Amino acid sequence: MKIAVLSDSHDNIWKLAAALPHMAAADIVIHCGDLCSPFMITRIGEGVPGNPVHIVWGNNDGDTYLIGRNAARFPGITLHGQVARFEFGGLRIAVNHYPELARGLAASGEFDLVCYGHDHAAHQEWIGRCLLLNPGELMGMKGNSRMVAVETDTRAVEEIDLGPGG
User: Fold this and answer.
1) Rounded Cα gap, residues 8 and 51, in angstroms
2) Which of 59, 11, 54, 60 is nearest to 29 (CA)?
3) Whole domain around residue 120: which residue ranges?
4) Among 94, 140, 143, 152, which residue's beta carbon has the most beta carbons within 10 A?
Protein backbone atom coordinates (compact mmCIF):
# COMPACT_ATOMS: atom_id res chain seq x y z
CA MET A 1 0.00 0.00 0.00
CA LYS A 2 1.14 3.52 -0.69
CA ILE A 3 1.19 6.52 1.66
CA ALA A 4 1.49 10.03 0.18
CA VAL A 5 3.27 12.37 2.61
CA LEU A 6 3.47 16.14 2.24
CA SER A 7 4.02 19.15 4.44
CA ASP A 8 4.31 22.91 4.51
CA SER A 9 2.04 23.73 1.60
CA HIS A 10 1.58 27.33 2.84
CA ASP A 11 -1.36 28.10 0.54
CA ASN A 12 0.53 27.20 -2.65
CA ILE A 13 -2.56 26.08 -4.55
CA TRP A 14 -0.60 25.61 -7.76
CA LYS A 15 1.78 23.09 -6.22
CA LEU A 16 -1.11 21.43 -4.41
CA ALA A 17 -2.78 20.99 -7.81
CA ALA A 18 0.42 19.33 -9.09
CA ALA A 19 0.51 17.07 -6.02
CA LEU A 20 -3.16 16.00 -6.16
CA PRO A 21 -2.70 13.23 -8.78
CA HIS A 22 0.03 11.68 -6.61
CA MET A 23 -2.16 12.03 -3.53
CA ALA A 24 -5.15 10.47 -5.31
CA ALA A 25 -3.01 7.53 -6.47
CA ALA A 26 -2.05 6.72 -2.88
CA ASP A 27 -4.11 4.66 -0.45
CA ILE A 28 -3.79 7.27 2.29
CA VAL A 29 -2.50 10.85 2.58
CA ILE A 30 -0.57 12.42 5.45
CA HIS A 31 -0.11 16.19 5.72
CA CYS A 32 2.43 17.27 8.37
CA GLY A 33 1.05 20.76 8.95
CA ASP A 34 1.11 24.32 7.65
CA LEU A 35 -1.73 24.09 5.18
CA CYS A 36 -2.37 27.67 6.34
CA SER A 37 -5.77 28.70 4.94
CA PRO A 38 -9.13 26.93 5.11
CA PHE A 39 -9.46 26.78 1.30
CA MET A 40 -6.58 24.28 1.18
CA ILE A 41 -8.73 21.68 2.98
CA THR A 42 -11.48 22.11 0.40
CA ARG A 43 -9.05 21.56 -2.46
CA ILE A 44 -7.62 18.44 -0.79
CA GLY A 45 -11.09 17.06 -0.03
CA GLU A 46 -12.28 17.58 -3.59
CA GLY A 47 -8.99 16.34 -5.09
CA VAL A 48 -8.75 13.06 -3.18
CA PRO A 49 -12.37 12.02 -2.58
CA GLY A 50 -12.67 8.78 -0.69
CA ASN A 51 -9.02 8.60 0.34
CA PRO A 52 -8.26 8.88 4.05
CA VAL A 53 -6.37 12.10 4.75
CA HIS A 54 -4.64 12.65 8.11
CA ILE A 55 -3.60 16.21 9.00
CA VAL A 56 -1.80 17.70 12.00
CA TRP A 57 -1.60 21.38 12.88
CA GLY A 58 1.47 23.41 12.01
CA ASN A 59 2.55 26.72 13.49
CA ASN A 60 1.10 28.68 10.54
CA ASP A 61 -2.37 27.12 10.44
CA GLY A 62 -4.31 30.25 11.27
CA ASP A 63 -8.08 29.81 11.20
CA THR A 64 -8.37 26.37 12.77
CA TYR A 65 -12.12 26.85 13.31
CA LEU A 66 -12.84 27.35 9.59
CA ILE A 67 -10.30 24.69 8.61
CA GLY A 68 -12.29 22.32 10.84
CA ARG A 69 -15.62 23.38 9.35
CA ASN A 70 -14.31 22.82 5.82
CA ALA A 71 -12.81 19.46 6.78
CA ALA A 72 -16.16 18.31 8.19
CA ARG A 73 -17.57 18.35 4.64
CA PHE A 74 -15.22 15.51 3.71
CA PRO A 75 -15.64 12.29 5.72
CA GLY A 76 -12.17 11.03 4.74
CA ILE A 77 -10.34 13.96 6.33
CA THR A 78 -9.21 13.65 9.94
CA LEU A 79 -7.75 16.63 11.78
CA HIS A 80 -5.65 15.26 14.64
CA GLY A 81 -4.47 18.39 16.39
CA GLN A 82 -0.76 18.52 17.31
CA VAL A 83 0.02 14.78 17.08
CA ALA A 84 -1.55 11.93 15.12
CA ARG A 85 -1.15 8.30 16.11
CA PHE A 86 -2.72 5.59 13.97
CA GLU A 87 -2.04 2.30 12.20
CA PHE A 88 -2.12 1.75 8.47
CA GLY A 89 -0.86 -1.05 6.24
CA GLY A 90 0.68 -2.85 9.21
CA LEU A 91 2.64 0.23 10.28
CA ARG A 92 2.32 2.12 13.53
CA ILE A 93 2.49 5.77 12.43
CA ALA A 94 2.94 9.06 14.27
CA VAL A 95 2.75 12.51 12.68
CA ASN A 96 3.49 15.98 14.04
CA HIS A 97 4.87 19.22 12.68
CA TYR A 98 8.08 19.70 14.63
CA PRO A 99 11.43 17.90 14.10
CA GLU A 100 12.35 17.72 17.79
CA LEU A 101 9.01 16.13 18.73
CA ALA A 102 9.25 13.73 15.80
CA ARG A 103 12.71 12.59 16.85
CA GLY A 104 11.39 11.78 20.33
CA LEU A 105 8.44 9.85 18.89
CA ALA A 106 10.78 7.88 16.62
CA ALA A 107 13.15 7.09 19.48
CA SER A 108 10.28 5.86 21.68
CA GLY A 109 10.18 2.49 19.92
CA GLU A 110 6.38 2.75 19.62
CA PHE A 111 6.27 3.56 15.91
CA ASP A 112 7.43 2.21 12.55
CA LEU A 113 7.07 5.53 10.71
CA VAL A 114 7.18 9.08 12.08
CA CYS A 115 6.51 12.00 9.73
CA TYR A 116 7.07 15.71 10.36
CA GLY A 117 7.65 19.04 8.60
CA HIS A 118 8.28 22.61 9.81
CA ASP A 119 11.87 23.20 8.68
CA HIS A 120 11.09 22.71 4.96
CA ALA A 121 14.07 20.32 4.66
CA ALA A 122 13.64 16.82 3.26
CA HIS A 123 15.06 14.23 5.64
CA GLN A 124 15.10 10.44 6.00
CA GLU A 125 16.72 8.64 8.90
CA TRP A 126 16.39 5.29 10.59
CA ILE A 127 16.17 5.43 14.38
CA GLY A 128 16.21 1.82 15.41
CA ARG A 129 13.48 0.22 13.31
CA CYS A 130 11.55 3.48 12.87
CA LEU A 131 11.79 5.57 9.71
CA LEU A 132 11.89 9.27 10.61
CA LEU A 133 10.71 11.21 7.57
CA ASN A 134 10.32 14.83 6.52
CA PRO A 135 8.93 14.97 2.96
CA GLY A 136 10.29 18.47 2.39
CA GLU A 137 8.09 21.39 1.45
CA LEU A 138 5.25 21.60 -0.99
CA MET A 139 5.53 25.39 -0.87
CA GLY A 140 8.85 25.60 -2.74
CA MET A 141 10.38 28.41 -0.68
CA LYS A 142 13.81 26.75 -0.33
CA GLY A 143 13.96 25.05 -3.71
CA ASN A 144 11.80 22.63 -5.63
CA SER A 145 8.39 21.70 -4.32
CA ARG A 146 8.28 18.08 -3.28
CA MET A 147 6.46 15.31 -1.51
CA VAL A 148 7.11 11.61 -1.01
CA ALA A 149 5.33 8.28 -1.32
CA VAL A 150 6.08 5.46 1.14
CA GLU A 151 5.39 1.79 0.41
CA THR A 152 4.06 0.18 3.58
CA ASP A 153 5.57 -3.27 2.90
CA THR A 154 9.16 -2.11 2.51
CA ARG A 155 9.06 1.48 3.80
CA ALA A 156 10.80 2.42 0.56
CA VAL A 157 10.50 6.17 -0.05
CA GLU A 158 9.85 7.59 -3.51
CA GLU A 159 10.79 11.25 -3.78
CA ILE A 160 8.38 13.22 -5.96
CA ASP A 161 9.80 16.46 -7.37
CA LEU A 162 7.08 18.90 -8.37
CA GLY A 163 9.43 21.48 -9.86
CA PRO A 164 10.43 24.98 -8.80
CA GLY A 165 8.27 26.66 -6.20
CA GLY A 166 6.45 29.82 -6.93
Assistant:
1) 20
2) 54
3) 2-164
4) 94
